[in-house]
């Protein structure tokens, strides 16, 4: 039987609206703050030369696209899934480190602790060990309350198979449909999330594109001023020296 058996659609929609506003606001702030000097310190100039990139705009497009791709997943995961899970489950923000929210079921005298992750490929051995330690620390709250304690890692999308090997875990892992069904009792909730978004994403597309285009133009200008010769060609030696020299 699922932990949750019902949910408030209006609360869910409000949470989604707030989360999308936060997501786009955070992403735009990141894009607006990009600095070509800081970016090029971390990039591989030899790779760009090996790919025969001949102009500043080509390099900047590569850099900006890669930045958005790597940033948007993290930002979306931080902004969207946790508040949605809290709204859908009726849980409350947890104070314990590494725990995103808790559900206190007074009827069954149980405390359910959740760590919310985006997809199922987020852990390495060290981070998983830290998560286990966080669950252990949170269990003391349940002991003090003399309540039954269950811990979960919830992956907002994807699928997670249990290998069935090794010692039993102190927590359960639920992904995609199984996670959202556990929180709401609704087998279709994971699909309904898309419906609940409605036309909200379209409200932010124009401002996002405007920010992206401004950043592109600004970074091209900065790159040209810093790393191009007087004739407009890329000064590869200057770029490599900047990136890797003393």
Written description of the protein model:
The chain is α/β, with parallel strands linked by helices. The mean pLDDT is 91. The protein has 9 helices and 5 strands. A hairpin with a 4-residue loop joins β2 (101-105) and β3. α1 runs parallel beside α8 and α4 (56-89) packs antiparallel against α8 (202-227). Strands 1-2-3-4-5 form a 5-stranded mixed sheet. It has one domain (9-244).
Instruction: Note the main sheet.
Output: 5 strands, mixed
Strand order of the largest sheet: 1-2-3-4-5
> Tally the helices: what do you get?
9
Number of domains: 1
The assembly state of the depicted protein chains is single chain
List unreliable stretches of 5+ residues: none
Q: Any idea what the radius of gyration is?
A: 23 Å
The 3D shape can be described as elongated
> What amount of the residues lies in strands?
5-15%
Strand count:
5
Distance between the termini: 63 Å
Q: What is the percent of helical residues? A: 55-70%
Structural class: alpha/beta
Order of helices and strands: HHHHEEEHEEHHHH
Mean pLDDT: 91
Helices, strands, pairings?
Elements: H1 9-32, H2 36-42, H3 45-50, H4 56-89, E1 92-93, E2 101-105, E3 110-117, H5 125-144, E4 148-155, E5 171-175, H6 177-184, H7 189-197, H8 202-227, H9 236-244
Parallel strand pairs: 3-4, 4-5
Antiparallel strand pairs: 1-2, 2-3
């Amino acid at each position: 039987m699922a932990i949750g058996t019902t949910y408030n659609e209006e609360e869910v929609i409000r949470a989604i609206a707030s989360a999308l506003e936060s997501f786009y606001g955070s992403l735009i702030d990141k894009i607006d703050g990009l600095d070509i000097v800081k970016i090029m310190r971390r990039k591989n100039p030899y790779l760009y030369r090996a790919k025969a990139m001949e102009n500043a705009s080509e390099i900047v497009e590569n850099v900006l696209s890669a930045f958005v791709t790597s940033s948007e997943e993290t930002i979306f995961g931080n902004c969207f899934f946790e508040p949605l899970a809290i709204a859908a489950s009726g849980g409350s923000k947890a104070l314990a480190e590494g725990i995103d929210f808790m559900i206190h079921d007074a009827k069954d005298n149980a405390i359910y602790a959740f760590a919310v992750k985006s997809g199922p490929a987020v852990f390495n051995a060290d981070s998983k060990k830290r998560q286990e330690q966080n669950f252990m620390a949170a269990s003391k709250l349940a002991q003090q309350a003399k309540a039954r304690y269950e811990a979960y890692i919830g992956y907002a999308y994807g699928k997670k198979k249990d290998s069935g090997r090794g010692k039993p875990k102190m927590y359960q892992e639920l992904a995609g449909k199984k996670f959202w069904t556990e929180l709401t009792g609704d087998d279709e909730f994971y699909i309904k999330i898309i419906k609940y978004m409605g036309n909200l994403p379209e409200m932010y597309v124009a401002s996002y594109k405007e920010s992206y285009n401004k950043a592109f133009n600004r970074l091209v200008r900065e790159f040209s001023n810093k790393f191009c010769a007087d004739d407009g060609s890329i000064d590869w030696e200057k770029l490599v020296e900047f990136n890797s020299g003393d």
